Every structure is written in C-alpha cells, then in structure tokens.
Amino acid sequence: MAITDVAAFAHLTDADIENLGTELDAIRRDIEESLGARDARYIRRTIAAQRALELTARVMLAGSAKRPAKWAGTATLAAAKIIENMEIGHNVMHGQWNWMNDPEIHSTTWEWDMNAASKHWRNAHNFQHHKYTNILDMDDDVGYFILRVTRDQPWQPYNIGNLPYNLVLALAFEWAIGLQTVDLEKYFEDGPDGDTARERTREFITKAGRQIVKDYVAFPALTALSPAANFTSTLKANAVANVIRSIWAHAVIVCGHFPDGAEKFTTTDMAGETRGEWYLRQMLGSANFEAGPVLRFLSGNLCHQIEHHLFPDLPSNRLHEASVRVRALCEKYDLPYTTASFAAQYGKTWRTIAKLSLPNKFLRATADDAPETRSERMFAHLKPIDADLITGRRRGLKTAITRVRRRATAKTR
Asked: CA-to-CA distance for 347 and 336, rounded, in angstroms?
C-alpha cells in the first residue's frame, strides 16, 4: 500500500534527512544567486520565438488550403501551442520569472492559451499538487478522478475502462485540466465551498468560451478573407493542433508522476513534516525522463520533474544543471534517481493503467511491493545494513530495493 513512513521507506535517519534538506537548500540558493541577464534573455527570446512561430502558422494556414500547406501550418501551430503551454505558460505561472519584476512575465498576470483560467490553475496546481504531491485523497493529480493508478484506490467495476479513459484524457487533456480546477462536485453544495465552485464554473465558462471563439470562429473567419484558404480548413487545423498539444502535455505529465518508482503516500506523512521530509517526498514521488536540448525545451523542461518538484519556482532553463547535483545527492544518500527514456516511462505508465484496470486478485505482485505501489512494509523481512563492511559506504533505499529483488528472484528459482 502507500508509504506511511517516508523516513523508514527511504532508510534515512532524522539527521540524514536534515542534512539532505540543507544540501538541497544550497542548490536552490546557488541558482537563485546566479540568476541574471542571461536568464532574462532566455525567457524573452522564448516568448518572442513562440509568437513568431504562431504568426508563421497563421500565415501558412491563410496562404493555402491545399493539403501540404494545411498540414505544415497545423504542425507549426501545434508546436507553437506546446511551447506556449509547456515552456512559457506553465513555468511563468509557477513564479519562475517573478524575480525579473516584469509585469508581462509574471505569475499573477500571465493568461495562457488554454481553457483553464490561470488563477484557478495556480491555486489547484501550485498550492495543492506541489504541496501534497502524490498524497492520496489530497492530490487530485493521482488519477485525475477517473484513473486507477495505485492499489490504494479500491477496484470498482468502472475501472475496467482504465485504458479508454486514459485515451480520452489524453485527447481532451486541455479540457480535463480546466475542469479539474473548478470542483464541479461541489457546485450544488450550500455554503462557501458551493459559492466558490459556482464562481469558478462561471469563470471557466467565460475563459473556455473565449478560447472557442478564438480558435473556432475568429481565426477561421480571418482565414476565410484570404482567396487561397477557407473557414473550414483553419477550423480543422486549430482543432487538430489543440489535440496534438493535449496529447503531448498529457504524455509529459504522466511520465513525471505515474511510472515505476513514482511513489504514493498517505496523509499520515504530513504530520509535522519538516523541510527535509518535504524535499524527500518530492524526490520519491516524481520521475524524470532522459532528454536532449530539443526534448527538454518541448517538454517545458519537465523531463526534470524531480528537480521541478524540488524547486518549482526556479527557472526551467536551470533545472538541467540542478539535476547533476540532485543526482549526485541521490548517489550519496543511496536513493533511487528515477529516470529512463521517454518511451520507457510512457510505456510503463500505460502498462500500469492497463494492469490496474483489473481487480487485485488478478495481479501478481503484493500491494506493498508492486512497480506502481510500494511501502516501507516491503522491507519488513530484511535485516538492516547501515553501511558496506568493506568500503564503509552508506546502504539505504536503493540497496534495500536491490536486496528485495534478489530475494524474490531467488525464491522463484
């Protein structure tokens, strides 16, 4: 089942966790103190390039309704929307660029090209998901209300549709993110919660309505003024670009939260949680995927999901350098640094979603030692080993997991 004692699961003492927190604070401090003109140029050039890319896409779609031009314009528009959402909107609204004191590039003023109202997303994402990362019944991103992604979620007959639900979620991720921030389940409640839900619903409808008019009325109508294109071709191009953006955003997000090694936690972990314990939970509850410069950029640098969860308000262009030091800390404290190729992480996510569409009685691994669900109880049969007898090197979580795997393999022989 989910982890109830983070320190016990991680095989770290209170002093270890405090020291880990101090070293992570040092990484944050070093990056904050080095922020300057180079970083400001990066985000301003990124915004300018994204706007130029979107303008190019609009011109291409207006220039011709022929299939090659239409698909080229659609692909360019999808890329522009991905960059705006992932590398700009998501990161600006995290407050990563607030240190510049630029009123245009500020978390409180940026409104992204998406159905979700920015202020709703900031509240749901920054102040809920990042604080309560992967804590059951507190983090809505654990399954997005419809997916079963851990055995701690009791199997229900509707879970048999896990795979098609995830496909629909991917295709309509833009709408899912928007609706997630509204709390529709509280719409008909009396009192402050109901009032808030109704107000958010009205604001969401207003924002989504503007997006619909922009993408499916205004831009197609402008395109129709060109003798070389028509209303319908641009409408279809906008719809396809939005779906491509949704599929890509969904893929990047699930690769950071649902692959093997992205742990789940119970609410007991929050009791008296220290700064070091919060850091540790973020490290254990997130996963990375390997990426070069292009994939890093297109993912909004969320290929470094571990570092993003450790330092959510540090500029995204600095996460790659932070990852080198975070990875070294994981090695020092014998903690797993959960990463793999993008294809591997995405595949593991779909495998987990497929597997958990079935009742537990059809699953082989135990509820405390499964790829998608682990707890400190998986180590109950192990004798503690604090250090290697020869080298004196620390022996912690990574070593303990290896010992469990070897024991399980030996039993099957």
From this structure: 20
Which residues, 6 or more positions from 27, have their beta carbon under 8 angstroms from its beta carbon? 311, 322, 325, 326
pLDDT at 227 over 70: yes
Model pLDDT for residues 123-174, shown as the tens digit of each residue: 888 888 888 888 888 888 888 889 999 999 999 999 999 999 999 999 999 9
Q: With CA atoms as reference, report the closest residue to 171 among 77, 245, 235, 70.
A: 245
Q: Give the mean model confidence (pLDDT) for residues 176-198.
A: 85
pLDDT digits (tens, 9 = 90+) for 18-53: 999 999 999 999 999 999 999 999 999 999 999 999
**In the chain, what are the helix, strand and coil shares in percent, each to the nearest 5?**
65, 5, 35
| Both tokens assigned to 8 | 């016990």
**Beta-ladder partners of 394:** 387
Residue found under tokens 């180079």 = 38
What is the per-residue pLDDT for 123?
86
Nearest partner of 282 among 325, 311, 324, judged by Cα: 311
Q: Are 279 and 309 in contact (CB under 8 A)?
A: no
Best CA proximity match to 288, nearest among 250, 318, 320, 325: 320
Task: Give the confidence band of 197 by pLDDT, cuts at 50, 70, 90.
Answer: confident
Q: What is the DSSP string of 46-59?
A: HHHHHHHHHHHHHH
Gap between the Cα atoms of 294 and 173, Å rounded: 23
Please, what's the b/e burial string for 346-381 (b: 16 or more CB within 10 A of its CB; e: otherwise)?
bebbbebbebbbeeeeebebbbbbbebbbbbbbbee
